């Protein structure tokens, strides 16, 4: 049975893992804490970037010889394969770790088996401590492995009556400065930020992260089927990488040097599944969907929204576009039901975070 010391150490490991959000793809975020044989913390670390040392290696280096006979607390099952780095399970064995406690089993078939390797070497192994907390912190990567596509977080800002703009089209600013700053945090935690052609034409968005020191800029992705984007669009500057998703026959002669993803059109539209497959092949494991109501509706209709983050401002408009357009839902029994995981004040606004449950639940 887990002690309070075990819980404290694992909670620290979960907090450490979060430091890697946005910089480790296509790898997971992982945190590790090591205590010596008497239970005192002697090392900690987190996975900082893909290709770099894993969390366990950072923690072992800090602990040194004090790791022998100690316990390693890891948010994800130690890996059991050699890629750009060696297997962490073997490193823990060689360091003389006597006990390993990990929160979440590794669903990646290429890396799983670390727990078995540890047990075969005489290491005591325990699984499941703070599993829900660790899983929530690594939700994007876990979703991408389990579903074979990027995790999609749909973000929107709206009035209390669900409007994202006034009847004349004006929308700046519905949400507060505090909420807008929080969106930059979401961008920094994502591999890609995605908008559609309507947002491109209406807002000329920039989509780069601002105000966060050391942030890894996400890939800016725009779905523009006919490649109508202007060469002077802010999205095409050098502040962050950009990928333009266009129809396979689109004329892109006016866009030299722009990275393109050409996809077939289906009744004039890009297929959401094909789009996500194309991003996944490029190493994208998490997408922040910032597009307008039409693009959001397409993703909801495709069953491709894994989390919703809504910033609700204490404002009423009474008219104007809604946050979500046609999502293929025609009756209340088919409604996409959500489970609210968090509700928090952000300045004068309320941020609601929710995940889909089941239709008709």
Strand content: 25-35%
Weakly predicted, low-confidence segments: none
Largest sheet: 9 strands, mixed
Count of alpha and pi helical runs: 10
Adjacency order of strands in the biggest sheet = 10-9-8-7-13-6-14-16-15
Would you count the extended β strands for me? 16
The rounded distance between the terminal residues' Cα atoms is 35 Å
- In N-to-C order, the SSE pattern is HEEHEHEHEHHEHEHEEEEEHEHEEE
Give a quick summary of the entry.
The chain is an alpha/beta fold. The chain contains 10 helices and 16 strands.
Could you characterize what this model shows?
This protein is of the alpha/beta class and 361 residues long. Helix content is 25%, strand content 26%. The chain contains ten helices and 16 strands. The strands form three sheets. A nine-stranded mixed β-sheet has the order 10-9-8-7-13-6-14-16-15, with helices on both faces. The chain is elongated. The mean pLDDT is 93.
Q: What topology emerges from the helices and strands here?
A:
Elements: H1 4-17, E1 31-35, E2 41-46, H2 55-63, E3 71-76, H3 88-94, E4 99-104, H4 114-120, E5 124-127, H5 131-137, H6 139-147, E6 151-159, H7 177-188, E7 192-196, H8 197-203, E8 219-223, E9 242-247, E10 259-263, E11 265-266, E12 269-270, H9 272-281, E13 286-289, H10 293-301, E14 307-313, E15 336-346, E16 349-359
Helix pairs in contact: 3-4
